[in-house]
Every structure is written in structure tokens, then in C-alpha cells.
Amino acid sequence: MRFRVTHITAYEYKDAVALCRNQAYLLPRQTPWQHCLISTLEIDPQPVDLRERLDPFGNRVSHFALQHAHKKLTVTAKSEIKIKTDPERFAAANRNSWDQLIPQLRSNKSPEILAALPFLYDSPLAGSSSALSDYARPSFPNGRPLADAAMDLMSRIYQDFTYQPGVTTVATPLSQVLKTRQGVCQDFAHLGVACLRSLGLPARYVSGYIETLPPPGQPRLVGADASHAWFSVFTGDAGWLDFDPTNNQLIADQHVTVAWGRDFDDVSPLRGVALGGGEHSVQVSVDVERVSEMPT
């Protein structure tokens, strides 16, 4: 599957901004199942400095600075991505039970397990707790295959929680989300991550996009898509397996991966500091368009 993604973030300030520095996680990363063919970052006004690096988790991070007065800032990320699916990944992740992995994390010093350990421990937005362990436990009886258990946790989050924009923010604690049973994809991704960590399993927060399809007979609305988030669990020899609790889907060929981290704070799409500006408004538009495969 091949997609063209356009992500536009537009800031408008009441007063002029004298200078600003920003950091962006907007360019998709390369993975074994995803190849980023083209990616560009367009900034208006033109920055005096624009550079890219890889963070400790291998994500692509863009840094840019503006040193002249401006009342508007538009950041446009354009990418073209090719995604391939591996139907054997789920079966491979199911070869061992989830509780068989726990002692391996303590004793095995393979590069894969060492790389997974940073995602085992609490992070500011996805910390473990006894309440989260209690919620996750029915999906993880002793001896249950790991992929099946994570799939069941995903389905329970989908069934138990209501997608309701506006009731949470980035700062809303998971204890509140667990109590109200409402939130958005970011909350549900954090919930899945924290539940898995509460059981002793490495889990990471994944940011990206999902292709949304219009109802039959209706045209696709350009710019109607949005940033998305889901969780991923480490399965040992089979690597990482991703689950989308907002849509109750195992990640396949409709999801575009941008970055992953311990939680949202590690991979916030766009953040920075500005001198001046006062009150401001932000508009975000994301378009995920399926494009035809080019002939070989």
C-alpha cells in the first residue's frame, strides 16, 4: 500500500513573534514494514536554520529557528510512504506466553531486549499502578499467548471507553481516564502502554496517521484525517507488535508510523518556544491519500 500524507500546522498570533525555536516529529521513520520514499518539511516564513537528526529511539527530529518578526507560522510536512504487511507477525508473537517473557527480560542480554528495556519503566504520562494492573489482568491469565492477551486488552479498551474529544488534555492523568472511561486516541494509547508496563512488559507509544475511508458513495474529504496514536508491545523474538485500541485494529496497511517513544512527550508533533506573540490560535489539517503503485 502506498500513501501520500500532508500534515499542515498553522499558527496565527495576536502580536508579532520576534523569534522562535521549534522541534518537530513530523517526518515518518523507516521500519521493516514501512519505507519512506519522499519527505519534506516546508516552513513559512523561511527559517534561518533547519536541520534534522535521529533521537535515541531512531525517530527523525527536525529543528528550525526563525529570527525575524512574524504573526503567522505554517509548517507543512509532506511524505510518500510504502507499507507492506507481514501476516506471520501475529502468529510469531503468539509462540510464547506473556509470562514466559518476564524472566527473559531480567536474564537475556541480547541487543533486542536491551533496546526494549527503556520502554519497560514508567514515564511521566504512562506510569504503572495497581489500578492499571487490575484492569489489565483479566486479559493476561498465566500461560496465555502474548499476542492474544494484548489483542484482548485492546478490544476491552475499545469496548469499555468512549471516544470523546474535549474531555481530556495531555495533562489528564490516567487515573482520571480510568475513572471516567472517556478520552481520545492519545489517552487510549497511554492506557494500553501503562497497563502493559504494570504487568512487567515493555510497551511504547506510537504516533502516526490512519487512512480514513468515507461512507460508500461519498467523496473523500481532503484534510479530514488527523494525527493518530496507538500502543506497541515487545514480544521477544518476534519483535514489536502494534495495536490500535481506538479502532480495535491490529496495525496493518492503513497505519503510517511517524515516531515512537515512552509516551506522547517523547514524540510531540510540534513544540517550541517563542518570544512575543501573545494569544494565538492553532489549526491542524492532515490528509492521508492512497496513491496507485508506480510500475516497476
Automatic annotation (TrEMBL):
InterPro entries: Bac_transglu_N (IPR013589), Papain-like_cys_pep_sf (IPR038765), Transglutaminase-like (IPR002931). Keywords: Hydrolase, Protease. It holds the Pfam family Transglut_core. SUPFAM superfamilies: Cysteine proteinases (SSF54001). One of its GO terms (biological process) is proteolysis. Residues 177-247 form the Transglutaminase-like domain. One of its GO terms (molecular function) is peptidase activity. Gene3D superfamilies: 3.10.620.30. This is Transglutaminase-like enzyme, putative cysteine protease.
